[in-house]
Records
---
Amino acid sequence: MPGIHNSPSIKPDGSHPPPVSGKPEPAASHDPISLSPHPSKAETPPPPSRRVLFVTDFYQEEILLGIVDHARHQNWELITNMRFHGMLPSETEADGILVTGYSERVRHWMRRWGGTHSVHLGMAPQDLPIPWVDVDYEQAGRAGARHLLELGHHHFVSYTLVKPPDTVRLRDAFIEELQTAGRSVTLLDFESIHGDNTLRVPREERLRWLAESLDSLKKPLAVMVDDDRRSLEVVAACDMVGLKIPEDVSILGCENRAVEVSMSRLPLSSVDMNWRLAGRRAAELLDGLMEGRDKPRNIRVKPVGVVGRASTATFITESPEITRVLLHIRENFAQSLRMTDLARMAGMAERHFRSEFKRLVGHSPRTEIHRARLVTATKLLRDTELKLDAIAFESGLGNAKKLCEVFAEDFGMTPTAWRVQSRYD
């Protein structure tokens, strides 16, 4: 529709529509959520630059928010109705498509649009040969292993229900990272027992099996799952046999999905896969393809990292006193923490406390405090628009000057430069 778009739209059969005059009214099913900010009364709003369809059979809110980040600035007409009712778009013309298509229904529909620039969210199926943007599950598995190792655990579990390629990559990287550290992993693989019938086994039967399996293992143990839905199952299984979380079982999920994390009776730790950035990268790639600037390519986005919550809020050492101090540091890092007070909390002389802490934790108390403050500062920089003084205060670094000094030493850049880089890497 030349009256709307900068370049002619492409029909599903690959042909171009004839020119039309004027600006046609959008169809009732359109959902142009990404129009530019409302103009003043004296201004005429610019027409949308492109029409893009959002097609999905596996919807994640964070993906769409990332797409909107780009679409709003490019003044796209972004049609997202499928996420409400599951019906494929009724439009017959579009400049581009952003799709998550694993069902045969969506893949069949996509074949009709062979002449339209498209980008897949998540690794594309083999029979849908279009460029894709995915998150890195191998890095997620390694990040999860490192997080649980830092808690002092020696006994580890990987729990999976089914094993699509993403789950296999995450699980194998988790195991490899732990094996490198001299640790072994117990596999609780429900699919290996039930095969093709796995998803037909009643949930109650699966939870009983999981509860019995966890109860039989040496405690304390740390469990990583491939999906926050599985984290909820581990919580339920622990409750069935009276296992305490995180004292007996630490639970680490993946995806950091707001619904599942909120449904749990205690906050769940999870790996933030950075789906919002993946959505933005997919929109940018599609924009480049539609404009003729880019060639089709595949992109993997690094996960943000582990978001630690109550389900892993523990530390395992042979000294309850050192464990108590370390947990105190992690909960109170933003406050002023003196070595004499921490040593007194441990019931030790200060020199002995420093020595024991480093022996059991692997680094000094000051390093632990610094790491906790730095993690908080980076999270606030990435996820908020707080000014530097506020971030310094919230993270325990005092003021913006000190925050800048820390970032110069640890990252070789200013906090502002780190903030920009973290949002676009």
---
Amino acid sequence: MDDTRTDDAPPFRLDVTGADLHGEIRRLRDARPVVRVELPDGIPAWVVTRHRLLRELLTDPRVVKDPVNWTLLRDGSVPEGWPLINFVAPAGMVTADGDDHRRLRTLVTQAFTPRRIAGMRAPVEANVERLLDRLAAQPPGPVDVRALFAYPLAMRTIGDLLGVPEERYDEFRALSASLTSSATGPDEVVATRRRLLALLAALVAEKRAAPGEDIISDLIAAREDADRLSEEELIGTLLLMLVAGHGTTLNLVTNAVRALLTHPEQLARVRAGELPWSSVVEETLRWDSPVGHFPMRYAKEDIPLEGAVIRRGDAILASYVAAGRDPEQYGPTAEDFDTGRENKRHLTFGHGAHFCVGAALARLQAETALPALFTRFPGLSLATAPEELRPLPSFISNSVGTLPVLRG
């Protein structure tokens, strides 16, 4: 690959298993700032490998989220069981633009007010203590901190906010894992979408019959107020809120624990009080983003960019892993995990109109969970060699499938 390539050059095929996401991004970044890539089933898209360029594109009016602007979807080239279709197809806040996006986002952000997030602190703290007690009660030997700590923390928090009954958590978790995998077969993709939509529709029906103090009930009330929210928009918005609402925090906490256990000198600095735990959270978000390549945005017109042209109707991945370790933005130490880094500004929660509404809640959970975990288990260590940890089979969700630790 070289900087003289044209739009006719063969695209770089992304590894659907996410086996070496950071290594793959490094190779793309070393090649050029704007790269044409190949997604599953030979579907082409674009990745920008520079923090500066991604930040510009996230606010560029020529870049939109509504899939009606994607040429390949319009002409039927994208198969029904395509692994990423469940990020593209749902109507809702994440796939809306302009007035529709502002309308939907206004309704959702009412549920994520600073006051409501502040009110979540005590329940999050109580949940963290309960989960730490459960970890302490496990038999001697390795325990999976992802499955037994990070997941139930994230799932209960978003579940309580949305109003999802606890007995449905594990089913939603399994379906979310299937949805965020970029290596899923077409039959599973179709089945996952059908099951998720059916579960959410049933949950909405229950809340409509018996409203509660939760986001679903609030959005139903908004829908029935002058029909401000269609049923399709309601289900689509809830789908992505549920998946992103627990998946981002789950990966963030997991990635932070792994980073600290593989960088003991950084853990020592934070535990000594030299730096706040928020430094760990922000550096993890930069260095090992919970989201790899987020689908999808589309060019509304031709966009010349750094020697390439993103054509009208082309798809664009928001590559947060690429931006997070860009040496143009973070200097020669961009690849290093450094909790004392002066410039920790990142794009992991997005930028512009689609900035993540749940960012403050994700930070609250991580900044509560990490100090509590390392205080309760000061001798915490990895139970396996770092190179034996296996990534999730995805270039969307960026983390490891399990994180076995010894409690010391």
